[in-house]
Amino acid sequence: MHIKANLSKFVDRFGIKMKKIRLDIVGLSYSQTQSGAYALVLGEVEGNRRLPIIIGSHEAQAIAIRIEKMIPSRPLTHDLFQSFAESFGIKLIEVLIYNLIEGIFYAKIICSDGNKIVEIDARTSDAVALAVRFEAPIYAYEFIMSSAGIIIEGHEFAFLENLDKASKSQDPNVMEVEEKTPSKSPTNPFSSLTDEQLEQALNQALADENYEQAALIRDEISKRK
């Protein structure tokens, strides 16, 4: 890990070029082993490696509602950041996951006002939440994909089903963690509702800005289709 940290410092200090890998969001699933935690899965655009990262519920909600095209009644923190930046002509050019130290991913958002480019350190989950709002590309250095990426063989769904098993492993090459949360097995309290009741509950959850509940209801609706 220390070698990787030094490599990243050399990139920043001496401008050495390192290969960047373009990533897309492949999935976002609730962790069955960690209460309030979600597995964010980033996938290599031109390859079959996947980079799973455990993130908190608030950041997962911020990413999910944008992907699902949910419209909150009032702007969330990441929405406010976007509005603020765009009001002053600032654009998010890209997100770069640039380091991995002791199981923690480090990212930065690269912004520009048209005249100068500024790099700002950020948590990976926050950086991704902003990337989906600005429609900015997400990258990771090759050494991160080589050490923490998982190669997918077979159906993608099987990989997503096994994410929680991977999150139990202490091997940093299997699952890297952005933030730790206590373990607890959650259940979906909406599984007994009718389809009509689910739609009503979803509308109410959105009106109440309860996006975690809305995500659970949306999951239950999707299962029945």
TrEMBL record:
Pfam families registered for this protein in UniProt: BFN_dom, UVR
Chain positions covered by the region annotation Disordered: 170-194
Stored InterPro entries: BFN_sf, Bi_nuclease_dom, UVR_dom
Polar residues biased stretches: 183-194
GO MF term set: nuclease activity
Domain UVR per the UniProt entry, residue ranges: 196-225
The BFN domain, residue ranges: 20-152
Source superkingdom: Bacteria
PANTHER family in the cross-refs: VON HIPPEL-LINDAU DISEASE TUMOR SUPPRESSOR, VON HIPPEL-LINDAU PROTEIN
Name of the protein this chain belongs to: Uncharacterized ACR, COG1259
Source species: Sphingobacterium thalpophilum
